[in-house]
Known about the structure:
alpha/beta, 7-stranded parallel sheet, Rossmann fold
Amino acid sequence: MANVELIEVDDAATLCRTAADLVIDVLDGLPEATVMPATGSTPMGTYEELAARAARGPFDASRLRVVQLDEYVGVDELDRRSLIGWLRRSFLRPLDVPDEQVVRLRGDGTDLALACRRYDEAVAEVGGLDLAILGLGPNGHLGFNEPPSDASSPTRVVELSPASIASNATYWGSPDAVPRRAMTAGMTVIGAARRTILVVSGSHKHDVLHRALEGEVTPEVPASFLQRQGGVVVIADRAAWR
Ligand code: GLP
């Protein structure tokens, strides 16, 4: 875990405030920074906290460039369950970031390989990520980089694993309703972020968090590559770490 800074906090509420402090700290003096905010339940409180602070000032996120992390295949962007829809509701709208400042990962077209290429080009054009705010999948995935994914895994279409289908079922009503395919920013994109904040909450993440931070660096636990990356801070609550 030599390369990773771990901040242990008491509970999920403290995690949100601590993560928001750190995000603001990293973005201080970088009003046009490029940020990748994950969806998923863990970072939602952090985004609410950021929005509350933006409303009070002086934190202003409206000039940030935002890069989408992942998306289901074949789900219309106006569908509430699309990840771009979730990103708009949780991050873009509350923080006044216009859609034109978003690098999209589009899963609703016909040529998905082309969409992945366009995405990688667009990320390169903006100079990569200043900050990635990530959650930890129940099987150690980042975005939808399902095991096995190593550091060279590109932006691509993936088949969702049974663990990811199960953990996303709550958003879809049942496992059967969850799309079987998704698109994800490659480990290449995620791993090149200059700063990364990984937020992890709850006892159900305990084992996978320890494998990610203290276990062997292996494609079987994609998040374990964070150990080699540099600039990574993990904020975990006691239930997840102890
Ligand atoms: C999901 C998403 C990830 C997310 C992770 C953790 O499947 N693809 O982007 O970060 O799993 O989600 P949560 O924060 O809800 O535990």
